[in-house]
Amino acid sequence: MNEVLHDAFGVTITTWKLVGYLGVALFAGRWFVQMHYSRKRGRPVVPTVFWLMSITGSLLLLSYFTFGKNDSVGILSNLFPAGVAGYNLYLDLTNKRSRRAAGITSD
Questions:
Q1: Distances (CA, A) of 13 to 3, 17, 18, 63, 92
Q2: CA distance 4 to 106
Q3: Is residue 24 domain-resident?
Q4: 82 is in which domain, residue-wise?
Q5: Tens of pLDDT along 6-27?
Q6: CA neighbours within 13 Å on the CB side: how many for 81?
Q7: What is the pLDDT of residue 72?
Q8: 10 vs 106: CA distance, rounded Å
Q9: Overall domain count for the chain
């Protein structure tokens, strides 16, 4: 996966770099999703998809830094957000399940 796919203008693209770029896109893009939902509702909202994008982006970046780059700083900087996002996703889904069981439909 470290085989060079493309090399132009000093930028070397490998499969692991594509994994890393996708992780960065998801991790950064989650803020645009959050902003969209907040604008739509007229108040700050953190939708479930925000946490899914956080976990997926963190795991892709963890993979890149673990297997593609072998960089302990990158591993540590993405390990913590993945855990926090996982916990928040758990809380979000548990809360939604409880609200549905109680017959509460609005936020």
A1: 9, 6, 7, 16, 37
A2: 50
A3: yes
A4: 4-101
A5: 888 888 889 999 999 999 999 9
A6: 23
A7: 92
A8: 52
A9: 1
β-partners of residue 83 are none
Confidence of residue 105 (pLDDT cuts 50, 70, 90): confident
pLDDT tens-digit series, residues 40-89: 999 999 999 999 999 999 999 999 999 998 899 999 999 998 999 999 99
Are 22 and 59 in contact, with CB atoms under 8 Å apart?
Answer: no
Look at residue 106 and tell me if it is in a domain. Answer: no
Instruction: Name the token pair of 53.
Output: 């994008």
Given CA atoms 21, 25, 27, 28 in this order, what sign does their dihedral have?
A: positive
Pairing of β 4-8 and β 11-14: antiparallel
The answer to whether 61 touches 74, Cβ cutoff 8 Å, is yes
The answer to the question of residue 107 being in a domain is no
pTM for the model stands at 0.85
Locate all alpha helices (DSSP H) within 13-101, ordered by sequence: 15-41, 48-63, 72-101
Would you say 61 and 24 are in contact if contact means Cβ atoms under 8 Å apart? yes
